Amino acid sequence: SGTYSGTGVSGGSFNPSVAGVGFHTIYYSFTDAKGCSNIDSQMLRVDSLPFTFPIAGSSSACAYDSGLVYTVNNTNGSSYFWTVPSGSIVDSGQGTNSITISFGSSSGGVTVVETNSFGCVGIAQTLNVIVNPLPITSSINGKAIVCSYDTGVIYSVINSSGSSYLWSAPIGCLIVFGQGTNSITVNFGSTSGNITVIETNSAGCEGVEKSLGIQLNQTNAEAGDDKTICVGDSIKLNASGGINYVWYPQAGFSNPNIANPVVSPVDTTTYYVVVTDSTGCPGIDSVTINVNKLTVADFSYSISGSTVSFYNSSINSNNYIWNFGSGAASTAHNPTYTYKKLGVYYVCLVAIGECNRDTVCKKIGIYETDIVENSVVDSINIYPNPTSGIVIIENFFNSHLKYNVEVFNMSGIKIIELSDQDKNLISIDISQYAKGLYIIHVTDGNGILLKSRNIVLD
User: Fold this and answer.
1) What values do phi and psi take at 19, rounded to 5?
2) How far apart (Å, rounded) are the C-alpha atoms in residues 409 and 418?
3) DSSP string, 344-388
4) Residue (of 346, 361, 353) closest to 391 by Cα position
5) 7, 240, 277, 394: most buried by Cβ count inside 10 Å?
6) Residues in CB range of 285: below 8 A, 6 or more apart
7) Rounded Cα–Cα distance for residues 213 and 236 (Å)
8) How is 171-209 classified by DSSP, letter by letter?
9) Per-position DSSP letters for 20-44, written without gaps between them
10) For 7-23, how does the pLDDT look when each residue is reduced to its tens digit (9 = 90+)?
11) Which pTM does this prediction carry?
């Protein structure tokens, strides 16, 4: 039998780790039965093993995480074989020095074995990865049907120690308290949507989003159209849209808790009604009742010769009728009138507003001498003024003058007519008529106005 010898040879076996890296000659010597001997040799090369660095990557992951990267330093010519925990998948990079992993739910080691260009397999490197379970979030507790603009509505999930909670609410809603905790308080707007929450546990793992659909009910309150009334009048309001009604401000209502109460405002007032429907949701609307005040007539004046300027100071009015006491009239706001003869005149102003008309009369004396007087007209005198009922018409200039007498009320209705009068003095009784202003016309036989006088019956 023969024997082997050389560096790293022991008992007929070659041990590369003993021989070391490099070239080694191995010898074999043999002696046969006849005593003849021979020797042979062979050159062996021992290559070094690859040196693989520790794996770089997270030692903690969440169940079902994806896209996590693990690497070792790259050596030219080397290939790398990776293994991952049960249930996990190498998404990309197998055979290279860097891989991407999608984890399952099991912890375990991420291991890589490097083979260099000489085919030498290195020592496996392993990184133990703890795969943390995802939090299990309870269903959201809270109202699914809410009134528009409700405030202070609470939603919650069961609290897990160490967890945080990210909430979202429908557009227009405001989370006023509790964001980050397991319970929030919400002020709603008018838009339906979802309340959602995502729980993150102490390991930083996010759970499955929980959602609760929210239906917002909105009551379409209607207070009715704006109206206009006169002061002292009453009006019935008319709300709709629900089953319960409360009006504000409540002063002056026949009943503030019905749809159609009666009100009698003395000033323009806006009323608000809160309407509640069958779901208990409120709505609000308003109606304005415009109140027109009573008309009050008044005026002042200034006299220049026989011309009088009138200044209207009536309130709550928009149309006017002036009677200047001479038979002339005007509808101007601030008229100017020139009298054609001397005397005392009762000027009356009728002011007309939205709710009523009011009359004021004032005595005006015209005493300037620049007026050319008509002797026939001036021969007729009508008195007393004011009167308690009897009016005297005196013709003291021309006893042969025949004249006609007509008496009109303020509405322009003729109430008395006397024709072909030739007495120097006649009397007319108007005491049976209502107190107020009356107009007396004296005309000649041709219908020409000789005298006009406003008489006040008091």
Assistant:
1) -70, -35
2) 16
3) EEEEEEEEE-SS-EEEEEEEEEE--S-S---HHHHTEEEE-SSBS
4) 346
5) 277
6) 221, 222, 223, 239, 241, 272, 273, 275
7) 42
8) TT-EEEE-TBSSEEEEE--S--EEEEEEEE-TTS-B---
9) -SEEEEEEEEEE-TTS-EEEEEEEE
10) 888 888 888 888 888 88
11) 0.53
Q: What is the pLDDT of residue 16?
A: 85
Residue 95 has pLDDT above 70, yes or no: yes
Separation between Cα atoms, residue 318 and residue 80, nearest integer Å: 102
- Residue 307 identity (one-letter amino acid): T
Q: If you write DSSP's letter for every residue of 199-235 in order, what string do you get?
A: EE-TTS-B---EEEEEEEE----B----EEEETT--E
Backbone angles phi, psi at 120, to 5 degrees: -85, 135
Look at residues 245, 271, 286, 295 and name the one whose alpha carbon lies nearest to residue 263: 271
Structure tokens at 423: 């007495």
Identity of the amino acid at 315: I
CA dist., res. 326 & res. 344, Å (int): 10
**Residue 114: pLDDT above 90?**
yes
Q: Are 242 and 276 in contact (CB under 8 A)?
A: yes
Q: Pick from 442, 436, 308, 434: which is nearest to 361 by CA?
A: 436
DSSP labels, 259-311:
SS-EE--SS-EEEEEEEE-TTS-EEEEEEEEEEEPPPB--EEEEEETTEEEEE
| CA–CA dist 458, 441 (Å, integer) | 20
Coarse DSSP helix, strand, coil percentages of the chain, rounded to the nearest 5 percent? 0, 50, 45
pLDDT at 358: 92
Q: Is the peptide bond before 54 cis (omega within 30 degrees of 0)?
A: no
pLDDT beyond 70 at 180: yes
Q: What is the per-residue pLDDT across 397-444, written as a single tens digit (0 to 9) for each?
A: 555 667 889 998 877 788 999 988 888 889 999 999 998 888 888 887
Q: What is the mean pLDDT of residues 212-225?
A: 92
Cα–Cα distance, 308 to 322 (Å, whole number):
13
C-alpha distances out from residue 108 to 85, 95, 132, Å: 5, 20, 11
Q: Side chain identity at 432, as an amino acid letter? A: Q
Other Cβ atoms within 10 Å of 51 Cβ, number: 11
Structure confidence at residue 263 (pLDDT): 94
User: Which residue in 235, 305, 247, 299 sits closest to 272, CA to CA?
Assistant: 247
pLDDT for the residue 370: 44
Given a contact cutoff of 8 angstroms between Cβ atoms, the answer to whether 297 and 360 are in contact is yes
Q: Are 67 and 44 in contact (CB under 8 A)?
A: no
19 is written with which tokens? 């021989």
